[in-house]
Every structure is written in structure tokens, then in C-alpha cells.
TrEMBL record:
Pfam family, one: PilZ
Family matches, as InterPro entries: PilZ_domain
Domain PilZ: 4-95
Organism: Pseudomonas xionganensis
Protein name: PilZ domain-containing protein
Length: 118
């Protein structure tokens, strides 16, 4: 008999949608991030070697907070999911807001053991 889980799941693509900074059209979703780059999951392959100006819209206490950054596509290939593509981007001088977001995500998704009480 399977065990039913009762843990609320957070759909990260809902929160981490990437937009073209100038046209405001969706480009895809963040698959993963680091201080140096990101994985973009999209419905179309990205042009390898091209520089893209991107925007994240992060919900906050005072409405949406936009993080603008640029990245150069290093590679793009079809995902195991039909109709999806994975593309790796190297970021060009990521802004402080992006660095803070990566740190916040790293903290949020890390295991933090409780301090032992004496």
C-alpha cells in the first residue's frame, strides 16, 4: 500500500519565470541557478553563442521586484520532456540582486540541522 505524502510542494517554475528584458515576453523557466550561470527550460531552443537580456519578476512584500541580467547561451539541447529544451547560460556580470536571490535559494533549499541543546 503506497504512503500518501502530505507535504506541500512548491512549483518553482511558477515563481521563476524568465522574461526577455526588452519585449517582456516569456523565455522559459529557471531549472537551476548558480552565481555564474543558469539552466533555462524553454519551449524553443536558444541560439548558442548569443547574448540574451533577461528579467526575473520576483514577488515581494511591495509588489513585483525585477532582477535584470544578461547571459550568453553556452549550449542548448532537447530535454527528456517532449517539446522542452534545456539551455545553459553563463552570466555577464550578474547584479547584486541576482547574487542575493541565488544565496536565498541556496539557504531555502539547504538542510539546516538544529543546534544541540546542552
Amino acid at each position: 500500500m503506497p504512503v500518501q505524502r502530505r507535504i506541500e510542494r512548491h512549483q518553482l517554475p511558477y515563481y521563476l519565470k524568465v522574461f526577455n528584458r526588452f519585449t517582456d515576453k516569456p523565455m522559459g523557466y529557471i531549472g537551476n541557478v548558480s552565481l555564474d550561470g543558469l539552466l533555462l527550460i524553454s519551449q524553443l531552443p536558444m541560439l548558442v553563442g548569443a547574448r540574451f537580456d533577461m528579467r526575473l519578476k520576483i514577488p515581494g512584500q511591495h509588489g513585483l521586484h525585477c532582477i535584470d541580467f544578461s547571459g550568453t547561451c553556452q549550449w542548448s539541447r532537447e530535454d527528456v520532456t517532449p517539446g522542452c529544451y534545456d539551455s545553459g547560460f553563463a552570466l555577464v556580470a550578474p547584479p547584486a540582486d541576482y547574487v542575493e536571490m541565488v544565496d536565498a535559494l541556496r539557504f531555502y533549499f539547504s538542510f539546516h540541522p538544529l543546534a544541540a541543546s546542552a
